[in-house]
Amino acid sequence: MPNDQRICGILTPNITPVDAAGRVHEERLREYVDWLIDRGVDGLYPNGSTGEFIRFTPMERRRIVEVVVDQTAGRVPVLAGAAEANAKETIEACEAYGAMGVRAVAIVAPYYYRLSPEGVYAYFKQIADSVSVDVTLYNIPLFASPINVDTVQRLALECPRVIGIKDSSGDLPHMMRMIQAIRQQRPDFSFLTGWDAALVPMLVIGCDGGTNATSGVVPELTRAIYQAVQDRQIDQAMRMQYQLLPLFDAMLGMSEFPEGFRQGARARGWELGDGRQPKTAQQQIRVNQAKGEIERLVATLSGDQVPGVTTADLRTIEEIVRRVLQQL
Length: 328
Hints:
There is one protein chain. This protein is of the alpha/beta class. It has a domain at about 10-235: Alpha-Beta Barrel (TIM Barrel), CATH 3.20.20.70. It has helices spanning about 25-40, 60-70, 85-100, 115-130, 150-160, 170-180, 200-205, 220-230, 235-250, 260-265, 280-300, 310-325; strands spanning about 10, 45, 80, 105-110, 135-140, 160-165, 190-195, 210. The protein has an 8-stranded parallel β-sheet. Helix 5 packs parallel to helix 6 (about 170-180). The chain is globular and about 50 Å long.
């Protein structure tokens, strides 16, 4: 039976460490998992976009989840990316991860072919009706067929195994419409944001947490943002949001995603390898040029000054957010 406890907090879509030969660096992955948990992340999300799941083989993906589950040892829940190229293989991956003890799996709509909303519904429905592990939908329109509000609502009401959604669109009204359509009938349904630039607004409107790539670089900051919103310290949360924003933009904009997040981890002392996507000499030059800016941003995150944002700006934002809170 599905677990009735909502998934909440900040779950890290962790980078997958690789060694000099391009193999999964299991020892480094275990060390990195411990570091993230020690710094307050609420869960791990292996085989996400930041983990470059598509660049690893199915066997490697299963081993990555196995290592993460083993190393967490029940300290935090694991939400495992289970996206494969078709429904049959995805169902097999879901069952394998369920047997490993993950809290739930996360599945994107099929990539490459753009599906209609009805096709997206049929895909998720077949998977949800076939697996024995909880399922979270993963809406990332940049890389896969989008999941609209009606489709999420149908799946939430028809499929007990569908227990949440991670939305990386950054579309605040879209998230609000989903919450409005579903929460009253499925209070156990989790809403997670994958767009770091809007973490505080998403939490304020009712999201339960986030799966945020920056939490793999500055887990202390994303945890503090989440806790500040829970404590209704919105002014403090917004200040930290504006600290996070330039780092997120710098890492997201570097070369080929998620190279910038690997550079961010290096700035924290983590050598997680170069990933498997080849780079040209010109790309490497741009990476080297951007590296210094990322290191500077990471180093200054503990400061109180928020570049480019005045006290008046913050007060206006805080007043708007408080009004939203009063209406929830």
